[in-house]
Design brief:
Layout lengths: L1 E5 L13 H14 L2 E6 L9 E4 L6 H13 L2 H4 L2
Parallel strand pairs: 1-2, 2-3
Length: about 80
């Protein structure tokens, strides 16, 4: 089963790295139960939390979340699960 999360780091935001521990927790939970964790992002992440699904995203986070989900759902990855 694919478990998909979203992370669009914006270095200009003062707390942009605060979300990375949550990605690690989700990644560990997925490993424990045999699921694949896919992270929708517009950055190449250096983490063992999951596999990055890198796509172009707009800068505003709300628009980025919607665009990222749509890109994932149209991809072959979404057909696996």
């Amino acid at each position: 089963m694919n478990i998909v999360s979203f992370y669009a780091p914006r270095p200009d935001h003062p707390f942009f790295q605060d979300y990375t521990p949550f990605l690690e927790i989700l990644g560990e939970s997925c490993r424990k139960y045999g699921h694949k964790h896919i992270i929708i992002t517009d950055a190449q992440l250096e983490t063992d939390a999951g596999k990055s699904f890198v796509t172009d995203l707009p800068k505003p986070l709300m628009k980025a979340a919607i665009a990222g989900q749509l890109a994932y759902l149209k991809s072959d990855h979404a057909k696996e699960d």
